[in-house]
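Quick one: structure tokens for this chain, please?
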Amino acid sequence: MNGPQDLGGRHGFGAVVPEEESLRFHADWERRALGLTLAAGALGHWNLDSSRHARESLPPAIYYGSSYYRIWIRALVALLERAGELNPEELAEGRAKTPGLRPERCLRADQVPGVLARGGPTDRPGPAPAFAPGDRVRTRNHQPAGHTRLPGYARGHVGTVEAVRGCHVYPDSHAHGRGEAPCPLYTVAFFASDLYGEGADPALTVSIDAWEPYLDHA
């Protein structure tokens, strides 16, 4: 979707300031935000892509005015309310008033390291790829109302397939409960000048990962 998260190539948001890799959290509440998100995700009401879509669906004024983990918490509240695990009265009072719907799926503290170590692999069996390294492709200039991982700055542009990454869960389908719909995933490279115009560094290239439904032969 054309949500507030899609900032690539846009002016007015300042430079990206890298932080030390060892800096994971800026406050203790951010640790709890991550823990709550992991624990709630284990309930099985939603998947990674629908969780991402919930964050992207926040109104721009809220999204831009929130820090990283505040965005996570706001989206988590929406997901829990949608699943029936939380109601506005409980949220206002700051405590649960009814039992959870899936107590059997409670994520215990001792299970967390194993869950994080397993991760969430998305590779699946699927159809043969339609493109090969070296092929010229054009990204589709679609403006979907739902979730997509094709960034706005890359839509409608011609690039070159750098690599075929196998078949993976298609997030545009998965985020909305329409199944995993695995399809080939590619790394596609673009000249920065094609994406951003004559003011871009002519020696710079930009690579994105793009699912096959995003691409046509150029």
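The chain has two domains: 28-118, 136-217.
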